[in-house]
Amino acid sequence: MGTMELVGDVSALFGRHMRHLARIPEKLLSVTLMPVAYVIVFGVLFGSAISVPGSDYRSYLMAGIFTQMMLTNVGNTALGVAGDLDNGVVDRFRSLPMSRSAVLIGRTLSDVALAVIACITMAVVGYLIGWRVHQGIPKAIAGFGILLLLGYAMSWLGALIGLLARSAEAVNSIAFMLVMPLTFLSNAFIPLNGLPGWLRLLCEWNPVSAVVAACRELFGNTSTGTGKSALPVQYPIPLSLALIALLLAIVVPAAVGAYRKAAAR
C-alpha cells in the first residue's frame, strides 16, 4: 500500500476515535479531572510538607505529574485495543482493503491527542497554583514535545500489551504493575539526594527520571543539591530522546506483528 493510502487510512481511523469522544464525552474525564486531582493533591497538600533545595516544590512537581500522565497512555491504549479485539471491530477492519498498521497508528495518535488535552489542563491548573516556566516558550515547547513523544511510545507499548493480553482485567493488572514502579521509583515527586545509595542509583537510572529531569531543565524548574552523578541525571535531554527512540524501535514492529497475528485468528 502506498504512502497516500496509508495516510488516508490513518486519518479515517483517527477521526473515528475523535468522533467517539464527541459521542461519549465521559472518556475525557480521565484526561481532565484526574490530572487536576493529581496537581491539587500533590502540589497543594504535599507541597506544604515537602521542601526542595533551590526550588519551589509545586514547580518541581509539575514535570513529574506531566510524565506520570504520559505513562498512563499504556493502560488507555491497551484497553482500547483489547476492546476492539473483543467486540469484533478488528474482524471488520480485516475485511476491508486497508493497511493493518493504520489501525494501530490511528489508535496511538488519537491517544496522543488526549495526552495533549491532559497537558493543557494540567498546565492551566499548575499555573493557577504557582507553576511557571523560566527558560522561554521555545524550550517549554521542547519539553512538552519530549512528553508527547513519551506518551506516543507508551501508547505503542499499550497497543502491544492489549494485543497480547486480550482482556481488560489482564490489561489493568499489567499497566498498574508497569506504571506504578516506574513513577514512584524515580525523581517524579521527590528529590533523590536523601535516598540510600543503592536506591538512589536505581531511581537515577530509571528512564522516567531522565524524562522528568529533561522537562525540568527545559521548563527551568531544576533544584540544587541533587548531587548529579548518574548519566541520566547529567545528560537528561539526549538520553531521554534516545531511550524513547529505542522503545519505539522495539515496540512498534512488535505491536504490528502482534496485530497481524491477532487479525488472522
Low-confidence stretches: none
Strand content: under 5%
Spatial shape: globular
Write down the Rg. 19 Å
Task: Give me the strand/helix succession.
Answer: HHHHHHHHHHHH
The largest sheet, given as strand count, sense and whether it forms a barrel, is: none
- The number of helical elements comes to 12
Report the mean per-residue pLDDT as an integer. Answer: 85
Query: Can you give the helix content as a percent range?
Result: over 70%
Strand tally: 0
Distance between the termini: 22 Å
User: What class do helices, strands and sheet pairing give?
Assistant: mainly alpha
Domain ABC transmembrane type-2: 26-262
Main location: membrane
Membrane topology: Multi-pass membrane protein
Organism: Streptomyces yatensis
